[in-house]
Amino acid sequence: MQNIVIKTNPNDNVAIVASPTGLKRGAIVLNGIVLEEDIPMGHKVSLQTLNEGDAVIRYGQNIGFANKIIEKGSWVNESNISMPQAPNLADISYVQPKVPQVESLKDFTFQGFKNADGSVGTKNVLGITTSVQCVAGITSFIENKIRKELLPLYPNVDDVVAFNHSYGCGIAIDAPAAIIPIRTIKHIAQNPNFGGEIMIIGLGCEKLRPERLLPDTRNQLLVTGGLVSKQSDSDNQFSSNQLPINQSTNNQSSILYLQDERFEGFYEMVDGIMEMAERHLQKLNQRKRETCSAADLVVGMQCGGSDAFSGLTGNPVSGFAADLIVKAGGTVFFSEVTEVRDAIHLLVPRCETEEVAQKLKDEMAWYDNYLNQGKADRSANTTPGNKGGGLSNIVEKALGSVVKSGSSPIVDVISPGEKIRKKGLNFVATPASDFVCGTLQLAAGMNMHVFITGRGTPYGLNMVPVVKVSSNTKLANRWHDLIDFDAGPVAFGQKTIEEMGWELFHLILEIASGEKKVATDKLGLYNDLVLFNPGPLT
Ligand code: CA
Known about the structure:
Blueprint: E1 5-6, E2 14-17, E3 28-29, E4 33-34, E5 44-46, E6 55-58, E7 61-66, E8 75-76, E9 81-82, E10 109-114, E11 120-121, E12 125-130, H1 136-150, E13 159-163, H2 179-188, E14 199-202, H3 219-222, E15 255-257, H4 266-284, E16 290-293, E17 298-303, H5 314-327, E18 331-334, H6 344-347, H7 354-373, H8 384-388, H9 394-401, E19 410-414, E20 424-428, H10 434-444, E21 448-453, E22 466-470, H11 473-478, E23 485-486, H12 497-512, H13 519-523
Helix pairs in contact: 1-4, 2-10, 5-12
Bound molecules: calcium ion.
């Protein structure tokens, strides 16, 4: 296993040091190339002498230019290469791809919870939605109380989750960008794992009217407490400055206001919320797992704490599994705009229609502008950990990141906070920030999360299982109780991408069925959800 370096593409002029301890000066690799200096694991060695200005090629693509002479056998890193410009969106033209003949996969199933709207849950969770941060102390209190006192009475319900967030008041709610956090909260309440049981706790005087968080077809039926109730479903039609006519809360409604005048003091509010929770728990408790097609999977793919192995092992293996899910008729998301921006020329040709391709480019342009307003660009993405793991810049990171999308056609592009409309491979536009991306993928409707990491993160979500895939065995061994799947054997040829892709696919089905638990569910390690709010505060 010594002196192994890996080329990702035959045209590459750099290779990745795979040896877990790195390689020392004088080590001989490939065709007799002698290392000029010590190079750590995951970092790049130059396979030829590069003159100043020469392109550095990895994944068969230009990841940068040598900013001085780099001798053959030298360490190539962010200090001796400069970053190329991002591909110009206007230069990327679209040609309708030939639809490949793909054999569909049948007969793969899992045990899931079927919902009335056709979606399928992988967990059975009572979700408590909040319309404003003011109520968070009380909803956290209630969450604990329900877990201790009510969940033992409803054995088919897995958990209770209060979605506390920083939004709801002190915001410019009519600013165009406000639509993103608002529809995100609304759509998370509709996540398949909540079984359509929507329970919203509001304060009463907040700008974000809780009625706005009800599903479109239900907001006239369920708000019966005399509050503004005749609202159309269109997100933009709701005027934010309408005040409630009468803040009473009807027992049959899905909304409870803490300012409801029937409550005298804290404990009456608690009793009111507990009664409301019981009504929903009774319904959730009737849910039973039944056999569902793999076509009902909605798998969100994400990277975090990536290293140079991510693009060699974890992401190709996840990409292979993604293709299997799509072939089975299921849905896969990939996201993280700053991690696809530099690979956009490879993604546009994969869009199913010109309209989808344009939408993809529009999301890139929106994000370029968003970063620009903050006087930043996509290079702000890479972390010290990414660089320590051998990723020299965002171009190299992006080229490795998009591999997790597999090779299926991109059928649709979903803006931040929107819900998916089509099965198949979707690009769900999100920031790359792990917790923000996860939050937006939940809103889009994911019922299973695959998270690939090279440096390691304890990231977990309580609403959906998070399958953590390590890109290297060194991490999987050290974090033996935090990693669910080690894609590291691919680096040394011990297993193929195809073999491991199938293994991951089967693991996803077992976890979706509740037969196996992911590490973060065993340990109860959960991150907060974090809304993407590009709009102004007041
Ligand atoms: Ca991420």
